[in-house]
């Protein structure tokens, strides 16, 4: 909720988009001095870049930037989460894509269904 204000264009692949999303998340946590962070995502393609960087030379700069920023954080980890378990993020992404939203409506309080969805996830969490 702190950083739902960013959009990217001109991304060449899903793999690159996943890396940009990670960079955005890391930047946000770093700029707000967050600690003990768990990044949850289903980014299998980005994971592959970090595990096998030599296979993706065109993404080396971006992945190196992410790793450098992570080194500034005191305590962090990545956790793989299936898309079906991260329902609020999936629903936000679907509404942005479907409705062609270019401005962040989440940062302004979100649509009526968002708080219900987040509260339900918290309850089930």
From TrEMBL:
Q: What is this protein called?
A: RNase H type-1 domain-containing protein
Task: State the CDD domains in the record.
Answer: RNase_H_like
State a single Gene Ontology molecular function: RNA-DNA hybrid ribonuclease activity
Per the UniProt record, one Pfam family is: RVT_3
What range(s) does the RNase H type-1 domain occupy? 6-94
Q: Which domain of life is it from?
A: Eukaryota
Taxonomy of origin reads: Eukaryota, Viridiplantae, Streptophyta, Embryophyta, Tracheophyta
According to its UniProt entry, this protein's organism is Brassica carinata (Ethiopian mustard)
Q: Which InterPro entries match?
A: RNase_H-like_dom_plant (IPR044730), RNaseH_domain (IPR002156), RNaseH_sf (IPR036397)
